Amino acid sequence: xxxxxxxxxxxxxxxxxxxxxxxxxxxxxxxxxxxxxxxxxxxxxxxxxxxxxxxxxxxxxxxxxxxxxxxxxxxxxxxxxxxxxxxxxxxxxxxxxxxxxxxxxxxxxxxxxxxxxxxxxxxxxxxxxxxxxxxxxxxxxxxxxxxxxxxxxxxxxxxxxxxxxxxxxxxxxxxxxxxxxxxxxxxxxxxxxxxxxxxxxxxxxxxxxxxxxxxxxxxxxxxxxxxxxxxxxxxxxxxxxxxxxxxxxxxxxxxxxxxxxxxxxxxxxxxxxxxxxxxxxxxxxxxxxxxxxxxxxxxxxxxxxxxxxxxxxxxxxxxxxxxxxxxxxxxxxxxxxxxxxxxxxxxxxxxxxxxxxxxxxxxxxxxxxxxxxxxxx
Length: 377
Prior knowledge:
By secondary structure, the chain is α/β, with parallel strands linked by helices. It folds into two domains: 3-32 and 263-367, Aspartate Aminotransferase, domain 1, CATH 3.90.1150.10; 34-261, Aspartate Aminotransferase, domain 2, CATH 3.40.640. It is built from eleven helices and twelve strands. Strands 2-8-7-6-5-3-4 form a seven-stranded mixed β-sheet, sandwiched between helices. β3, α5 and β4 (120-125) form a beta-alpha-beta unit. α2 (34-45) runs antiparallel to α9, α3 (59-69) runs parallel beside α9 (249-284) and α4 (82-93) runs parallel beside α5. Residues 22-354 form the Aminotransferase class I/classII large domain. Belongs to the class-I pyridoxal-phosphate-dependent aminotransferase family. It comes from Microvirga alba. Its EC number is 2.6.1.-.
């Protein structure tokens, strides 16, 4: 069986595992607002699924996304989730001989999209205290070459949870503008940040903002997101969209309803996930060698460093997997630094975090000295 089929079969088993605690995918498991459920039920009862959606998305949804970002004058192109937006952007903006620059760690798939069209990929390491786990604008400037076509910035960073300051965004934008490059600002985790600055407000002419409903609204399985940019860039993207018959009507109805209740519902989700981060922080304080290098995190997850405790991330992940708790090994995000950490999602019921922390001393002890080869996802 091909490696992709093996990975898919393994994930299929995870999805079909009853009572699995999903602490590894940054998914949001908060109970949905009734208005979101009702919007989907209403769409099904009206049998809207017989028709195609507008190719750029429902106008109400497009306007709602722009309003949520506060980017008046920009345009939104609804997609089948943020990763589809990234695929579309990379395949439209890049070609053979172009250069794509991002950080290490970063979200890996856009690098694969860039390489698939013949572009080269350069990563700037940001993991470690020496880098403060963030991208210094001067290091970006040093990495830029005449071939640089796209700079890809995940902000807040996945998996680290660091967020750029306003002054950092200002400086990064100046570097990208001087190079005449595009800036893809992946803001998937923006809603969880303590503070966040949109690069599009500084560099409107060539910034593409990636928007997702998977994380803040918990619609990961429905696949709905958007690219937001100036109208000229959106016009360029609409020439050959991967979903030219429109994204799922059911998903868009859920997203519209979500935007309508966001101010009422989301603050509770945010408070709970920040509480969950504190519980993890308290739990590791009594276990020598474990550390949270970025705390508090600006995402709905934390990075838990394990190398100081003398255990491998894979051994810890495998131990929890046997208890039907999914966390993620660092190698999923970065082969360079993946031996140092695991990632734990926090936008989940507090009972799940309590289960995770109660087991932590036992899991650490059992993982010591193991070189786990269990199939992980």
